[in-house]
């Protein structure tokens, strides 16, 4: 190989006006690609911010979740813009993109098959956050797990039961969720009295008791209402009281109402029922003699 000839070819190529014109056009196109990518990114970011502001105004108690969704959408948008921009820039250097795209497709397919559960968990977690299905601090039940949500991630959700166990659940396993913290709850209190008691008198005492205590009960949003006789049992008459209360507070409100009604019944000498048995004794002449 003649070194002098190689050097002369290199000098001719460097000093060629066509080469510099082609290089200049490539630089201009690359700059335009970067500029357009940046403009598209800013437009998308502004649209995401506007959408998140609207959601934040509607859901003031879930501001952190709205911010998380906004960051996720911005990151995904940036990655897509960078990927497309990189492909366009490589095309300016006459890089054949077909093998590159084919290799990326095979690689992504292999990763998808190898990590199907991971991809499912991430996609489900994203939609849990995006659709506002539940928030940190909500009391939820999914499958056999019930408790307070401690953390919501893209891959797992942590639920702490009332007895202290912490359940770490992959998001892909969350198919159905019952949220007990979205709306007000209803406390239902059933009180049983004996058949010998005056039902009307018992109902009046209950009405007076709940009316007096209605304004002093914690976590209630309405005055307790005495519905009346709920059921006639074998040895008792069941009376029912209901009251609307704050989300997930119906157990505490029911306990407080039970204590108030029990005290009122004790003060007015209204007995609660107790198990009874009536027996019949047949006489020698075939008659029936009853006894207890």
TrEMBL record:
<keyword id="KW-0472">Membrane</keyword>
<feature type="transmembrane region" description="Helical">
    <location>
        <begin position="66"/>
        <end position="91"/>
    </location>
</feature>
<feature type="transmembrane region" description="Helical">
    <location>
        <begin position="20"/>
        <end position="45"/>
    </location>
</feature>
<dbReference type="InterPro" id="IPR023408">
    <property type="entry name" value="MscS_beta-dom_sf"/>
</dbReference>
<keyword id="KW-0812">Transmembrane</keyword>
<keyword id="KW-1003">Cell membrane</keyword>
<dbReference type="Pfam" id="PF21082">
    <property type="entry name" value="MS_channel_3rd"/>
</dbReference>
<feature type="domain" description="Mechanosensitive ion channel MscS C-terminal">
    <location>
        <begin position="188"/>
        <end position="272"/>
    </location>
</feature>
<feature type="domain" description="Mechanosensitive ion channel transmembrane helices 2/3">
    <location>
        <begin position="75"/>
        <end position="116"/>
    </location>
</feature>
<comment type="function">
    <text>May play a role in resistance to osmotic downshock.</text>
</comment>
<comment type="similarity">
    <text>Belongs to the MscS (TC 1.A.23) family.</text>
</comment>
<dbReference type="InterPro" id="IPR049278">
    <property type="entry name" value="MS_channel_C"/>
</dbReference>
<dbReference type="InterPro" id="IPR006685">
    <property type="entry name" value="MscS_channel_2nd"/>
</dbReference>
<dbReference type="InterPro" id="IPR049142">
    <property type="entry name" value="MS_channel_1st"/>
</dbReference>
<dbReference type="GO" id="GO:0008381">
    <property type="term" value="F:mechanosensitive monoatomic ion channel activity"/>
</dbReference>
<keyword id="KW-1133">Transmembrane helix</keyword>
<dbReference type="Pfam" id="PF00924">
    <property type="entry name" value="MS_channel_2nd"/>
</dbReference>
<dbReference type="InterPro" id="IPR010920">
    <property type="entry name" value="LSM_dom_sf"/>
</dbReference>
<dbReference type="GO" id="GO:0005886">
    <property type="term" value="C:plasma membrane"/>
</dbReference>
<dbReference type="InterPro" id="IPR045276">
    <property type="entry name" value="YbiO_bact"/>
</dbReference>
<feature type="transmembrane region" description="Helical">
    <location>
        <begin position="97"/>
        <end position="119"/>
    </location>
</feature>
<dbReference type="InterPro" id="IPR011014">
    <property type="entry name" value="MscS_channel_TM-2"/>
</dbReference>
<dbReference type="Pfam" id="PF21088">
    <property type="entry name" value="MS_channel_1st"/>
</dbReference>
<protein>
    <submittedName>
        <fullName>MscS Mechanosensitive ion channel</fullName>
    </submittedName>
</protein>
<feature type="domain" description="Mechanosensitive ion channel MscS">
    <location>
        <begin position="118"/>
        <end position="181"/>
    </location>
</feature>
<dbReference type="InterPro" id="IPR011066">
    <property type="entry name" value="MscS_channel_C_sf"/>
</dbReference>
